[in-house]
């Protein structure tokens, strides 16, 4: 049982808050300072993005952070170097999130080993197909104690959601709508119906809702139906401001009831 | 089944697949399940063939270029895709995909474009069918390809500037994929080349395969032999080349030559010669050969020809290259421009700069005098007049 499983087991359904940010943004060495500030401010777990030149699932805010991070010189090798002291500074679960090509170039085995060595608990790679994962990568992930997180959208069929539930070992990442990141969730009867439909499926894995969660109202709405919710673009936007580290506690306080 | 065609899992050897986020899965899966069935339906075949004939103007001529033949001491034939409606091979694919989209009940069409040829071909078929059309085009390309932007707008398409990344073709493709993620139900994405997640590379290849299908028939009529000794075509993503090679893949006597853009030179740092400079990687939904940094970030390619400066090649090309079935070479800007002018002076045909790369390859080859050599003249040069004028100082 890794830190992710423990978190969900211990907290039960208590509005778990996860924050996403891009490694190397706004500065090359800001990664761990931000992670530490988030834990101290009350975030329950973290998703650290590793930047890619062509992030097709991301909207303008995270695209921009990736571009800046790459210009700053962020690479997977450098990120793992920074993460060597991760567990001296951060105790909450940490996932890495990014696109498949940098992982393939780094080497999938090396990537998984380095995740384990750094104390990373899980990985989200949106463009790694489920079949590929199952056939080629599942064993390596499991040997290294890594949860691989799959996405579910309003268009994902029930059969496929059941399959995803079977393959998942941490939680299921439920998208608030089929969208790129950073579009505000519009609360409507249809999103409620969709969240409720997933809730009624009684999946074995916890469900965390992400994409479009930018304020307390959306966070509460999402966690009425799910175990937790993820805030990404809204937080990355904060990182673009001056004195962003000092503003993190207030940002978290605004989100969490 | 040919070992050079896609297998049931969507792969060509190690290449291909569908590396897409879950948001794209339902649309791509719908397409995967239906494209072959729809393409084989009699109503589809009939309308596709009729439009290719009466609207596009097919079959395109296979022209024995006499003065070019004298120069290269072989029978050099040009497959005249430049004479198609809208001026290039791109329309073969957009006609096919619009008929497919219609039968899938889609109401809205999106596309990416580099130089604007595929965008124009898409806007054209959307006008033909009265469907809403949005074309993503890099902000940099919008600046340098104004006539094609005007053509798209005149046909009623909305042209949206891609302002992310390097603001060129690869970024326009990213924006189109993002649009598709955000419009998961009523929209069909008409990809312009043999790239993207399975089934796109196979689907586009099938629509472009009319090029080699006609070539076979025309060669038989004109020479008594249906197979050429050489088939030569330029490669950006690689759709005209796949179309030119398609019916010759399992004919081992036909030598297939794919020509990439070397830009200022393969080693100059300003090049688009993907097989020479790339490594295996994933971009835009498929595993192929990709120009990238050691860290896996995609490198922006360069060529004087906007249609060839794509950092990858289609997965089938990656397989034809690694399996050795086709030969991949590259041609610099200078060599291509000279070949473009040469064809103009010898045959009175102004080729697209993309196609001029394939023509320049003739200079580098030696033939026997009765060899039949087919070059795919993928597009006409009207769109490139500015570039030609500037380059030669006319």
Reported CATH architecture of the largest domain in chain B: 3-Layer(aba) Sandwich
Oligomeric form of this entry?
heterodimer
Secondary-structure class of chain A: alpha/beta
Sheet with the most strands: spatial strand order of chain B: 3-4-14-9-10-13
CATH class (first level) name of the largest domain in chain B = Alpha Beta
Low-confidence stretches of chain B: none
Strand order, largest beta sheet of chain A? 5-4-3-2-1-9-8-7-6
Q: Radius of gyration of chain A from the CA trace?
A: 17 Å
SS elements, strand count of chain B: 14
Determine the mean pLDDT of chain A.
Answer: 95
Question: What portion of residues of chain B is helical?
Answer: 40-55%
Q: From the alpha-carbon coordinates, what is the Rg of chain B to the nearest angstrom?
A: 19 Å
Number of helices of chain B: 16
Strand content of chain A: 5-15%
C-alpha geometry of chain B: globular
How many DSSP E strands of chain A?
9
The helicity of chain A comes to: 40-55%
Classify the fold: give the CATH topology of the largest domain in chain B: Rossmann fold
- Count of discrete structural domains of chain B: 2
- What count of helical segments of chain A does DSSP give? 13
Structure overview:
The complex is a heterodimer of chains A (257) and B (394). By secondary structure, chain A is of the alpha/beta class. Chain A has helices spanning 3-11, 31-41, 60-72, 76-82, 86-89, 100-106, 108-118, 130-143, 158-167, 189-200, 216-225, 233-239, 244-255, and strands at residues 16-22, 45-49, 94-97, 122-124, 147-148, 151-152, 172-175, 207-210, 228-231. In chain A, helix 2 (31-41) packs parallel to helix 13 (244-255). Chain A starts with a helix and ends with a helix. The mean pLDDT of chain A is 95. Chain B folds into two domains: 19-51 and 90-204, 3-Layer(aba) Sandwich (Rossmann fold); 57-88 and 209-392, Rossmann fold, CATH 3.40.50.1100. Helices cover 42% and strands 18% of the residues of chain B. Chain B has helices at residues 25-40, 42-56, 66-72, 90-103, 117-129, 139-144, 146-154, 169-182, 200-208, 210-223, 239-245, 274-277, 315-322, 333-347, 353-360, 385-392; strands at 11-12, 15-16, 62-64, 75-80, 108-113, 132-138, 158-162, 187-189, 230-234, 255-263, 279-283, 286-290, 326-332, 372-377. In chain B, the strands form four sheets. In chain B, strands 3-4-14-9-10-13 form a six-stranded mixed sheet, with helices on both faces. A four-stranded parallel sheet of chain B has the order 7-6-5-8, with helices on both faces. In chain B, helix 5 (117-129) links the parallel strand 5 and strand 6 (132-138). The mean pLDDT of chain B is 96. Chains A and B meet through helix 3, helix 6 and strand 6 of A and helix 8 and strand 11 of B.
């Amino acid at each position: 049982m890794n830190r992710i499983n423990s978190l969900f087991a211990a907290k039960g359904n208590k509005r778990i808050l996860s924050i996403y940010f891009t490694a190397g943004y706004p500065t090359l060495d800001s990664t761990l300072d931000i992670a530490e500030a988030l834990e101290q401010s009350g975030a329950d777990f973290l998703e650290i993005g590793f930047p890619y030149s062509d992030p097709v699932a991301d909207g303008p805010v995270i695209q921009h952070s990736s571009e800046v991070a790459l210009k700053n010189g962020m690479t997977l090798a450098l990120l793992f170097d920074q993460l060597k002291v991760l567990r001296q500074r951060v105790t909450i679960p940490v996932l890495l999130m990014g696109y498949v090509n940098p992982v393939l170039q780094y080497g999938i085995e090396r990537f998984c080993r380095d995740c384990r060595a750094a104390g990373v608990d899980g990985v989200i790679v949106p463009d790694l197909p489920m079949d590929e994962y199952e056939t080629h990568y599942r064993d390596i992930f499991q040997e290294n104690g890594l949860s691989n997180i799959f996405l579910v959208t309003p268009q994902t069929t029930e059969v496929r959601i059941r399959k995803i539930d079977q393959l998942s070992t941490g939680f299921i990442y439920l998208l608030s709508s089929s969208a790129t990141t950073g579009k505000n969730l519009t609360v409507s009867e249809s999103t409620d119906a969709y969240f409720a439909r997933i809730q009624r499926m009684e999946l074995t894995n916890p469900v965390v809702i992400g994409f479009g969660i930018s304020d307390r109202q959306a966070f509460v709405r999402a966690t009425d139906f799910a175990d937790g919710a993820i805030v990404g673009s809204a937080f990355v936007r904060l990182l673009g401001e001056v004195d962003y580290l000092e503003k993190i506690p207030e940002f978290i306080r605004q989100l969490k009831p | 089944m040919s070992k050079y065609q896609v297998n049931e899992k969507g792969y060509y050897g190690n290449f291909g697949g569908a590396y897409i986020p879950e948001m794209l899965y339902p649309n791509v899966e719908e397409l995967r399940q239906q494209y072959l069935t729809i393409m084989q339906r009699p109503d589809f075949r009939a309308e596709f063939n009729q439009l290719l004939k009466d609207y596009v103007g097919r079959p395109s001529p296979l022209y024995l270029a006499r003065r070019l033949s004298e120069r290269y001491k072989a029978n050099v034939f040009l497959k005249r895709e430049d004479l198609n409606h809208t001026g290039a091979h791109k329309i073969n694919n957009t006609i096919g995909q619009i008929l497919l989209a219609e039968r899938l009940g889609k109401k809205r069409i999106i596309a990416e474009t580099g130089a604007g040829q595929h965008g124009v071909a898409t806007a054209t078929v959307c006008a033909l069918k009265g469907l809403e059309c949005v074309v993503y085009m890099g902000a940099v390309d919008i600046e340098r390809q104004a006539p094609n932007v005007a053509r798209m707008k005149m046909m009623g398409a909305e042209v949206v500037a891609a302002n992310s990344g390097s603001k060129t073709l690869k970024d326009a493709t990213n924006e189109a994929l993002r649009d598709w993620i955000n419009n998961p139900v009523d929209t069909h994405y008409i990809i312009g080349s043999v790239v993207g997640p399975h089934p796109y590379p196979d689907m586009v290849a099938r629509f472009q395969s009319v090029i080699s299908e006609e070539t076979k028939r025309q060669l038989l009529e004109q020479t008594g032999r249906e197979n050429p000794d050489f088939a030569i075509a330029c490669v950006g993503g690689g759709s005209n080349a796949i179309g030119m090679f398609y019916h010759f893949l399992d004919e081992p006597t036909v030598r297939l030559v794919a020509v990439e853009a070397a830009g200022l030179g393969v080693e100059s740092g300003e090049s688009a010669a993907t097989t020479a400079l790339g490594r295996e990687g994933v971009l835009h939904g498929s595993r192929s050969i990709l120009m990238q940094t050691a860290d896996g970030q995609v490198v922006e390619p360069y060529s004087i020809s906007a249609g060839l400066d794509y950092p990858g090649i289609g997965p089938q090309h990656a397989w034809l290259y690694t399996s050795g079935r086709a030969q991949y070479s590259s041609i610099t800007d200078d060599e291509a421009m000279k070949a473009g002018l040469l064809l103009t002076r010898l045959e009175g045909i102004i080729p697209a700069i993309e196609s001029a790369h394939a023509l320049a390859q003739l200079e580098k080859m030696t033939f026997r005098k009765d060899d039949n050599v087919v070059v795919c003249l993928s597009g006409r040069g009207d769109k490139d007049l500015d570039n030609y004028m500037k380059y030669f100082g006319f």
